[in-house]
Structure formats: C-alpha cells, structure tokens
Task: inverse folding
C-alpha cells in the first residue's frame, strides 16, 4: 500500500485575485479595499509619504501618534479601539509613515473614525509625549546593544554614505531634544492625505468599505509634501569594514550587492539567481555554511526595496572562530553563481518556490494587506502578482546566468562585519582588504 | 460588540496503527497546511541531556528511509512551500504550508520520517554545531537572551523536568550520541504518541485515502506513559538576580503557578483573560499605571506559559509578567505596584466596559491567527493531542467572552507575593 516514490505535484490553478475596489478621494487619499471574508475581521494599512522628514521628530511622531486628540486621551483611544476588537499602531521607514491595525469587521466604521481623529485633530500632549520620548530613548539604547541592529546600522552607513537612507535610527540625544510643538508642526506639514494610500482587507464589501473610509476620513485634507528622495548612490566596493565588538561570541556578516526594483525587466531573473545563491533554505549558500559546515543557524539573503532604490542584502551570524572561513565560503558561492550557469533542476526548484511563495503570501487577510500596501508604495497593484508570476515562469536559464553575473559578482559586494576585531581581523585580512572602523 | 466565532469543520479519525488525524477543510485560498505533533518536549529530556528534544527536532530534518540529507527541505520548497519545526515544553511540532497541489508530497515526507530518521554521526555533529549557533544568536550574543523563558523556570521550579534549560548546555549537546537519538525516537516518536492535521484546500474523502496510503504502514507503537510533572506550589517568594553583560537597562519578571490548563480549563482560562486586562494596550491596567502614570517601566507584558503557548501547555505552568525598566529603574518598586494593582482588581473589580473590550480584542487576535492554514493546523494538532478536542479552536473566542468579572477578580486575588517567583536583570553594559 505504501509508496516509496515522491508523489508528483498537481499543477497550480491560475492565480485568482480577490474582489477589490479602488478610489482616490477628493482629498487625494487613495483607498484600496479587498474582500477576503475568511474570518470576520478587517486589516488596515495606511501609508503616508514621509521621505525627507527629519529623522528624530518623525520617529518620535510615529511613537506618539496615538497619545491624544482634541477629544480623546491616549487611554480613550486605546479603550475605544479595543471595544470594537480594534488596535492600531504606527511605524516609520525612510519613505513612509505606516499605520497598521485590525478590527472585528463590525468595528470598521468606528476604527476609521478614531483613526480620523488621530489624523485630523492630534494633540501631542506634553506629558504623554515626554513619556513616549523617554521610552523611545530607552528602546534605542537597547537596540544599540543588539548585534543585528548594530550590523544593520553599519551596513546602511557604508552603502548609502550621504544619502538620507544612511541613518534610519536617531541618536538618543536628538530624540531628547524634540518638543511637542515640533511634532504638531511636523504632523500639520506631513501627515496629509495627498499621496497617501489606505488599504482595507477582510470581511467587507469593497465599495461599501471605501464609502465608509470616505465618510470617516472626509475631514482629513491638505496638500502632500514632495518627499521624493534622490536615487540611492551606486555601491562602491572597497575594503571590508570591520566594526569591533569586543568579546562577541558571534560575528555578524553583512554584504550588499546591487539590485533592481520589482518592475525592472531583470527582476524576475535576479530573484531566481538570488534564490539559487542564498535566498531560501535550499540554496547553495545555506546548504554550504549551515547544513554542511555548521558555521551558522539562520543565514539569509533578500532583495530590499526602498522607493529610491533596491539592494540585495546578505546576512549571517557566524561563530567567532569560523568568521574567516564563513567569508571564504560566501565569496566562493557568490563567485560560483556569478561565473557558472545554475543547474536545470536547482533553477526549477527555485522557480517553483518563488511561484508558490506568491500564493502563500496572498492566502491570508494580513498577507494580502501587507502585499497590497507594499505594492501600492511602489505604484503597483495586486495585478502585479499574476504578472510577476508569468515573468517568473518565463525566465530562461541564460537570463538567470546573466543576472547572476551582473548583480551577484563578489567583486561588486560591499562588506561589513561586526565582531571581536582582535580575533577575526587576521583571518579576514587573509581573504580581503580590511579597514577597521571603531 | 457581539463576539463572532469561526466554524471551521473538524473531521477526526484514528488509523489502525494509532495515529490520530484531524482534517479541517476550508477552500478560501488554494493552500494547505500540514502539521505533525509528537507528545514529547523539553520536560521529557533525560538528565545530562539538556537540549536533546530540540536537537532531536533538528535531526528529524536530516534524512529518513527514502530521503537523503537536504531532501526534505528541497522537496517542500521545490513544491513552493515552507517548512519548520519547534520544540515546546510538552510537544514538538513539524509543519509545512504549501500550494494545495503539493498536499500528497507533504504527507509522504511526514510519513517517511515518522517511520524513523536515518542518522549519521556526521549529521549529528553538524546539527550540534547549528544548534550552538542558534543558542548564540538567541541567548548568548544578545541583551536579555533567554529572559525570562529560560531564566525564570529554575527560580520557580525544583525538579529537573520543569527547571532545566531547554536549549541545553554546550557540554550536554556535545555529549549527545546516535544511540541517544535512536532511544529517544523509539520511546517517544511512536505514531500512537502523535497527531496529524491537514488544514486548507483539500477534499476530505480523497485526503483520508492519501493519509491511509502514506501513514497506514507506519509500525503501530503505543504512546509511552506520560510522567506527571506536578510539583508543589511555592509557599514563600523565591527571588533571583543576575547580571546580563549585554543589557543596558534593568528588567524584571514574575511568575505564579496557575490551575491545570487541561484538567481545570475553566479555572485556568480567567488567568489568560487577566493577563490581557493587565497588559494589552495603552488602556490596560499595568500599562496605564507603570508605563504612563508612574513611568517606572518602559514596556510591560503578561501571558500564560513560558513560551507564550497558553492553550498548548500542560501542568505545571505559570502566569507571567515581565517589565523592562528605564535607567536606574527599581524592580522592587515595580513589583510593589503590580501587587497594588492586583489588589485593586481583586477588591475593587473592573471598570464598566473594561472586561468586554478586552474580550473583544482577544477575539480579534484569536480569529486572526486562524486565518492562516498553519494557524489552524498547528493548534488543532496540539488540541487533539492534549485534549482530544481540536474543535476547541472554534470555541475559544466565545469561551473567552464568557469569563466573568468575578472570575478575573478571583484570579487576581490568587497572585500573592508569597507564591511568586521573581527574576531581576541587572544591566551589565554601560549606556
């Protein structure tokens, strides 16, 4: 009765997009509503353009956005949201202020009303802002001790130089200096509907959900600000930058390689080349440095997209004593993918993974909301899913070979390593030029 | 606000070899989740083999009868899917999420390793290295590593089973042998000691046939007798302090024993709700008091079970509170304030609307988790394993909503300082 043969896959049906609607309101706010009624909830994502906003003020604004309105305290806001099963929070990246949340489907109107109050009538009360400011400073102090954060900060600085993306976390002292009046001014200047995108996904009728958003957010008006940033600079390869972390039991290896945006004709080929190299578990790099050599636990590579440019980032935490060998294997695998064509079967495996991941990503309300919001921030819509799916299916082995040669060459890599410099500098210097940055 | 519920269908069956199966079809997205859960976890590790349950989880990915090393990963990902496994105090889970057309492949892969992993010394040593790196990433190389989930149990508990470090010491990991692995598999990885769940886009009748085809000839082996890990409650506070050389700021955690999560679920559930009343959002008791009013804490969290798996843990377990403090923060003061707020809740009860809004938000969290196929497959597999009641997943929002103010007050009243295990983190890194 048992079979020892790996069962065949039943081919996937065509990607079926959920029912959706879109409208740009008079204020300039774009609302995208998507129906997935599987659970009686609604996911909400609001992006407001925030490029070029002053970093410390913008970061504190995102932390203090829900501290009070003309008619509600921070506790009122939280309690009233909870009453309909709702919750909202805010975050910041170099391009956007992002409000995320969810609610019981029956609470959508109320959640939108509360959100409108926060957007239109913010108070930034001195006491609450002071609390959030201290908390933010404390959080930054802890982040400054997290190796993942430290390595990321060093890499951003190395990649972006003078571009605003170079620093994405403010200094504690800069945060301490921010006053509530400055938050009110920044809010008045930048928290505007023009250019903003609201995504609602869940157990909704899309047209009615847009009507509800129009009604609740109708009073949110005002011109947007041009937050457009200059394109990111090209990577400038150079010596490995070694950042000292005395006594570290692991080294944090980070590399940046050139990449292209989702809409570039090379993108699907680059995505597959990255998967074959290191972009998923069954990749050469992970099989090598984890499953063969045991140097590391969770190595990963990914293509990061910002509005002003895309970068491929390679990341691994490796034991201090194998820091040099880990870099060697990383150079080796990059060199191999950049100079030799991938195997037929490993390419097909990566392709099926990429195609399957698209389907898994759109199988939940939260997944759809995240995709729709991220795509919208690059001017794309959900129809990118079937389009990209077709592009992935069509990429040839030659195109993947060419993309790997163009984007994954170790000679183009920018490398940063955080670790115990006295221990790792020697082995690293045997492999490449090293500059210490202390 | 009326609390909604899900109506995911639940089909249960047991194969002749003792494997319990739960099927929960839902065709809202063309994906399936497959979970296999074994009734063994950290608490069952032998002395001298701390971390072995987790190491063994890694070994289950290293090959089996028809699968070479790396094959499992490649077959799942090459089908467009993702995989993982995790080791808890009382169970170990293995799972995949895939496009619907890959269901039979996932069943084949799980059945193959249920018959037994194929282990080599080389793969064992490789995975010991990988696990050490996992421990370095998650515990040794970061501030607050293992706080409080690895650091508080030895304060609260006295027996090896409940108190020891589930990630394991490097010495114990290095001592692990292939014979240990074989013995562990033979003892605990019996199909009578496991559940299989499939959730998502599939046909029930056809899938039953597939499951019979792939799992039907897994040798019938009964479940081993499960030990009782009960130990007496504390009668006086236990407190420990340690210095974290990477942490820039102080922190504190406190834990109290709670009723048996399975045998006495009705008495246990109010504690789950109490944790949210105290710590869910800016309108919760402890966030309002400690973070906003007193500013004696930067963050505060509350939950049941050391791994936050409140509906998937067995007795004994704990109600946990943890707080990160500002520079110079006073853990003793934070603990006193917590006592005050618990007293206030126990004697003064809740404010109008306070409980119902907390329950509404809890419903959202519960429903949201079930939207993902694995958010149904995994908890249902554990609920079947531990309670024989996978349908409890559908009932939880309503059961949470039925908890009364009196039950919350009674639960709060039981969290006395004398029953408390407390752990303070002293910052060892300059700011």
Result:
């Amino acid at each position: 009765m048992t079979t020892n043969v790996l069962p065949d896959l039943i081919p996937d049906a065509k990607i079926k997009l959920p029912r959706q609607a879109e409208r740009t309101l008079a204020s300039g706010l774009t609302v995208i509503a998507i129906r997935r009624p599987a659970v009686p909830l609604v996911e909400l994502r609001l992006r407001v353009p925030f490029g070029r906003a002053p970093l410390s003020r913008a970061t504190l604004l995102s932390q203090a956005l829900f501290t009070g309105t003309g008619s509600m305290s921070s506790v009122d806001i939280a309690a009233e949201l909870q009453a309909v099963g709702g919750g909202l929070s805010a975050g910041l990246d170099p391009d956007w202020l992002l409000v995320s949340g969810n609610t019981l489907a029956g609470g959508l109107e109320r959640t939108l009303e509360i959100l409108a109050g926060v957007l239109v009538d913010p108070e930034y009360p001195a006491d609450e802002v002071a609390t959030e400011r201290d908390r933010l400073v404390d959080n930054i102090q802890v982040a400054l001790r997290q190796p993942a954060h430290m390595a990321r900060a060093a890499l951003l600085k190395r990649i972006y130089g003078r571009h605003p993306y170079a620093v994405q976390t403010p200094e504690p002292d800069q945060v301490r200096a921010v006053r509530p009046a400055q938050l009110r001014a920044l809010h008045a200047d930048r928290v505007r509907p023009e250019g903003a995108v609201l995504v609602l996904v869940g157990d909704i009728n899309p047209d009615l959900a847009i009507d509800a958003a129009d009604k609740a957010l109708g009073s949110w008006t005002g011109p947007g600000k041009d937050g457009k940033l200059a394109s990111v600079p090209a990577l400038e390869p150079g010596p490995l930058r070694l950042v000292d972390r005395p006594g570290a039991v692991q080294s944090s290896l980070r590399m940046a390689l050139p990449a292209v945006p989702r809409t570039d004709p090379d993108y699907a080929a680059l995505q597959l080349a990255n998967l074959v190299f290191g972009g998923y578990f069954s990749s050469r790099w992970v099989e090598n440095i984890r499953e063969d050599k045991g140097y590391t636990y969770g190595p990963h590579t990914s293509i990061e997209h910002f509005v002003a440019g895309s970068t491929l980032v390679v990341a691994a935490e490796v034991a201090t004593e194998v820091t040099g060998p880990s870099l060697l294997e990383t150079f080796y695998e990059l060199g191999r993918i950049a100079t030799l064509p991938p195997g037929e079967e490993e390419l097909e495996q990566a392709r099926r993974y990429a195609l399957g991941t698209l389907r898994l990503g759109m199988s939940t309300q939260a997944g759809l909301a995240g995709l729709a919001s991220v795509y919208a921030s690059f001017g794309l819509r959900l129809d990118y899913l079937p389009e990209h799916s077709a592009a992935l299916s069509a990429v040839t082995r030659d195109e993947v070979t060419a993309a790997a040669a163009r984007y994954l060459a170790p000679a183009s890599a920018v490398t940063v390593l955080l670790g115990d410099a006295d221990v790792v500098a020697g082995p690293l210097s045997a492999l490449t030029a090293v500059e210490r940055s202390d | 606000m009326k609390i909604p519920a899900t109506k995911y269908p639940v089909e249960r069956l047991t194969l002749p070899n003792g494997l319990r199966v739960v099927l929960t079809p839902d065709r809202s997205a063309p994906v399936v989740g497959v979970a296999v859960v074994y009734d063994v976890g950290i608490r069952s590790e032998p002395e001298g083999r701390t971390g072995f349950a987790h190491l063994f989880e890694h070994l289950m990915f290293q090959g089996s009868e028809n699968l070479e090393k790396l094959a499992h990963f490649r077959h799942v990902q090459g089908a467009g899917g993702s995989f993982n496994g995790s080791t808890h105090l009382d169970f170990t889970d293995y799972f995949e999420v895939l496009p619907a057309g890959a269901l039979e492949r996932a069943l084949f892969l799980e059945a193959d390793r249920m018959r037994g992993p194929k282990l080599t010394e080389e793969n064992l040593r490789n995975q010991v290295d990988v696990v050490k790196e996992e421990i370095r990433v998650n515990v040794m190389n970061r501030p607050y590593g293992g706080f409080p989930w690895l650091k508080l149990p030895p304060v609260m508990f006295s027996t090896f089973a409940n108190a020891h470090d589930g990630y394991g010491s490097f010495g114990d990991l290095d001592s692990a042998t292939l014979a240990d692995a074989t013995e562990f598999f033979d003892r605990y990885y019996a199909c009578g000691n496991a559940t299989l769940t499939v959730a998502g886009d599939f046909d029930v009748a056809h899938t039953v046939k597939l499951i019979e085809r792939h799992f039907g000839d897994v040798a019938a082996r009964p479940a081993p007798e499960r030990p009782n890990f009960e130990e007496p409650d504390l009668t006086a506070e236990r407190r420990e302090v340690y210095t974290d050389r990477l942490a820039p700021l102080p922190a504190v955690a406190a834990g109290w024993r709670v009723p048996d999560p399975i045998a006495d679920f009705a008495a246990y559930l109010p504690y789950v709700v109490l944790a949210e009343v105290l710590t869910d959002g800016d309108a919760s008791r402890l966030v309002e008091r400690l973070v906003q009013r007193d500013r004696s804490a930067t963050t505060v969290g509350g939950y049941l079970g050391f791994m936050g798996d409140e509906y998937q843990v067995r007795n004994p377990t704990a109600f946990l509170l943890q707080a990160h403090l500002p520079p110079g923060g006073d853990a003793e003061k934070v603990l006193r304030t917590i006592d005050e707020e618990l007293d206030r809740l126990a004697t003064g009860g809740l404010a109008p609307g306070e409980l119902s809004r907390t329950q509404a938000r809890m419903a959202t969290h519960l429903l949201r988790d079930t939207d993902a196929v694995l958010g149904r497959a995994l908890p249902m597999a554990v609920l079947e394993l531990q309670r024989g009641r996978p349908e409890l997943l559908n009932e939880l929002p309503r059961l949470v909503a039925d908890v009364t103010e009196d039950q919350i007050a009674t639960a709060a009243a039981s969290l006395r300082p004398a029953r408390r295990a407390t752990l303070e983190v002293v910052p060892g890194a300059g700011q």
User: Anything to note?
Assistant: The first strand of chain A starts at residue 20 and ends at 24. Chain A has 16 helices and twelve strands. The mean pLDDT of chain A is 97. The two ends of chain A are 65 Å apart (CA to CA).
